[in-house]
Amino acid sequence: MKKFLVRLNYKKWFNVLRDGIARNNPIVVTVLGICSSLAVANMVENAIAMGIGVTLVTMLSSAFIALIRNLIPSQVRMVTYMVVISTFTIVFEMFLKALTPEIAERLGAYVGLIITNCIVMGRAEAFAVKNPVRYSTIDAFASGMGYTFVLIVMSVIRELLSNGSILNIQLLGADWINWTIFAIAPGGFFVISLFIWGLRVWLKYYEE
Amino acid sequence: MNKVYQKMIVFVLIMGTTAGGLLVGADLLTKNQIQQNQVTLRQRTILQSHDYDLSSVSDLASYYDEKIEVNQSFAEYKDEAILIYRDRESQDVTIAFDKRFGAGVWGPIVGYLTLESDLVTIKSVAIISQKETPGLGAKVTTAVFLNSLVGKVMEPRLVIDKVQPDNIDDLNYVTSIVGATRTSVAFQNLLNSTYAFHLPLLEVL
Structure pTM? Predict the structure, then answer.
């Protein structure tokens, strides 16, 4: 087992995966995707749905950009990322509406918000444009999972304090007074700041 | 024109065509299914508003035609037909509220208001789409809030507020959504204006 773990440390795919989820977590370390995380992480079901959407779109976009990376003229690379990301987001939304209309309705505006998520373009520019399809897809998956993990942890805290529930299941008693501020942006800032602070102390990640 | 620009233009054209092709293809593949889903959603919502159990229904469209009578012949508003859905058995009616009659804080709230056969008592309220703030105004779609409207009376008007005003009867009052006062007020106005518009039509039905 120990040998296996040591070997894993020398595999590129494992390092890419670990970095995306932990060392370079898009929210905690690179502070990307903050806007959407504040907006949607007030309910656990919203956080899960947004996490899945961002992960899928990031994977598709990164894979496609990695595939055509040698053809993209550097002058128009940002425009290319935008076209690719928005195309995949719209296609994802269309299929979601056609195949799972109930989930599409629950996600509502969130699917459109994926286009504006900095993580998708961030991974395209930082990784996919320089790496082959396989590693770019793993990197995108890892970043998406890192984002989803933070979103879910934040939303558990916020939904519990603002509604007394998790996944719409009432956990706190009837005498619980809802802390409504945790459902809106100021409460989101408070939770995410504490979360980033705590994790950075734990990971011993300090900016010079 | 040098080679760099030529390459850039060719790339942009190919990229635009590829993206356009993908979007057109996805649209062709999904358009009919999305339209069918919307029809199914409408039929299911209206049947559920009339307390029909759909768990054992295999052909929703036939069941809907069997149970619900749709009246659309006598009125139009803002270039769209006014549809009134009536339960053939109980004579309870369902009317649609949408952007023609008002909106929420961030966009239209679309759904159905079902009234008992006395035409004033709320039997159920269902929302099929809305754009309110997630976690706050979007709670307008929760069962807890929608169930609090059941049994309330639309005449003289429905009031959704934090505190019950002195001059408002219990049967006209619903507690607003905590932290979403503006959505509550917008939804109250939407329901009242929808009801006021449809009432003369319901009375002659």
Answer: 0.75
